[in-house]
Amino acid sequence: MGDSKKFSRVINSVNGRIERGVLPGVTLRVMLNGECVLDYTAGYSNIEEKIPLRRDSVFRLASMTKPITAAAALWCAERGKLRLSDKISKYFPAFARSRVGKLDGRGKVAALGAAEREITVEDILTHSSGLGSGEVGDAQFASFPRAHVRTPREAVEHYGEWLLDFSPGTSQMYSPLAALDVVAAIVEKVTDTEYESFLRERIFLPLGMTDTGYNLTEEQYGRVVKMYRLGDSADKLEPHEMGREGHDGFPAGAVSGCTAMFGTACDYTRFAQMLCGDGEFGGQRVLSPESVRLMRAPHFKNGFAGMDEYSNWGYTVRVRQRQTENVQELSPLSYGWSGAYNTHFWVDPELKIVGVYMSNMSNAGGAGAITAFEFECDVMRSLKDK
User: What's the CA angle centered on 307, arms 303 and 309, to 5 degrees?
Assistant: First the structure.
């Protein structure tokens, strides 16, 4: 579907990787002004059995779970169930005692002292909370019994005692596997609904995202792509067995605000189109235009610790501040994010472009992956070609 000739550079790029044996398979979707201009699937969901990748193949979304969690929080904020300025101790009192830590000379975590202020919901959404963001968070996560934690609330019971990497609001540093669980747990608490059920009722079903969730049907599990990794020489794929886990080290069926969600490229395109449509898609309004503008707005001032001149952060999405001359093709204020297992999306709110990339590799990178960068550049250059 779409104009394959116009997007030949996009198709040739991914096909070349598949032919060289460094990409198992890929599904690409590009929307322009609400119309599908590229819908392309190639390669395999299982190389050994020569099972072709399908348009409805199911992928592990990893950190592309996070923007969905942000949408859930904004849905609640619109209805007065929470405020983005709320201290998270309002919902989980242990966080009122947050302390900042450091690693000592033996690599052990030691407390430096009390945080300068408490963590807010907005701090978590902008990755400026200090919770699970750096070496202090990594060291604590290494001893965290993640394999036995199945819900956001169970995770938060542990995180309330963690030391922070920095005082909230003093720096921006990504929290890959911890902080967004707190937001998901707050959503559960203020809606009195299990998180997966809330997402299904308020986001997935209204948008027609019938193949997205943490716990799939047997038929859906049958469409989950097999995971691969690049070997040490980076020129050959190796199987990376994950069973039914949504994320490495998480139990099968675990629900998290950070990761572990499954979904298809078609489903995630619907979510991204909702954002591109200022909260509405297919006649269904999920968020208000004001909420979407908050989500995509650059949050930090120039020079803020952790930021560079080219990108900023909205709520769980990276926002392009300016183009990198002759390198990065995305328009300023385009926004999106990626997953660790080689998935990626972005939205251009001015040009009304949505791009979604889905593959199945465990060590090809997320937001910094060359495949994501090439996809963005190839799509934008194709759209500019006359």
Answer: 70
How confident is the model at residue 220, as a pLDDT?
Answer: 98
Based on the fold, state whether residues 228 and 341 are members of the same structural domain. yes
pLDDT at 327: 56
Give the CA radius of gyration of the chain. 20
In a domain, residue 76? The reply is no
State the Cα–Cα distance between residues 52 and 54, nearest whole angstrom: 6
- In degrees rounded to 5, what are phi and psi of residue 359? -135, -170
State what percent of residues in the chain have pLDDT above 70.
98
Give Cβ neighbours of residue 21 (< 8 Å, ≥ 6 apart): 235, 236, 237
Name the strand (E) or helix (H) holding 295: helix 289-296
Q: Hey, what are 124's tokens?
A: 């978590």
User: Could you tell me if 383 and 18 are in contact, meaning their C-beta atoms sit under 8 angstroms apart?
Assistant: no
Last residue of a domain, one of 170, 191, 212: 191
- pLDDT score, position 212: 98
Residues in Cβ contact with 185 at an 8 Å cutoff, skipping those fewer than 6 apart: 91, 92, 151, 152, 153, 155, 156, 195, 257
Task: Please tell me the total count of domains within the chain.
Answer: 2
Return d(Cα 54, Cα 195) in angstroms, integer. Answer: 29
Token pair for 295: 């989500």
Look up the pTM and report it. 0.97
In 10 A of CB 306, how many CB atoms? 15
Is residue 127 packed enough to be buried (19+ CB in 10 Å), middle (13-18) or exposed (0-12)? buried
What are the b/e assignments for 310-320, b being 16+ CB within 10 Å? ebbbbbbbbbb
Query: Could you identify the residue written with the tokens 């898609």?
Result: 281
Burial (CB count within 10 angstroms: exposed 0-12, middle 13-18, buried 19+), residue 15:
middle
> Of 143, 167, 191, which residue is a domain's last?
191
Q: Is the domain of 248 the same as that of 376?
A: yes
User: What is the chain's mean pLDDT, rounded?
Assistant: 95
Average pLDDT over residues 152-167: 96
Helix (H/G/I), strand (E/B), else coil: 52 = strand
Mean pLDDT for the stretch of residues 20-39: 97
In the chain, the N- to C-terminal Cα span, in Å, equals 20
Q: Average pLDDT, stretch 257-284? A: 98
**In the predicted structure, residue 49 carries a pLDDT above the cut 60:** yes
Q: How far is CA 87 from CA 117, 167, 350, in A?
A: 9, 14, 34
Does the pLDDT of residue 283 top 70, yes or no?
yes
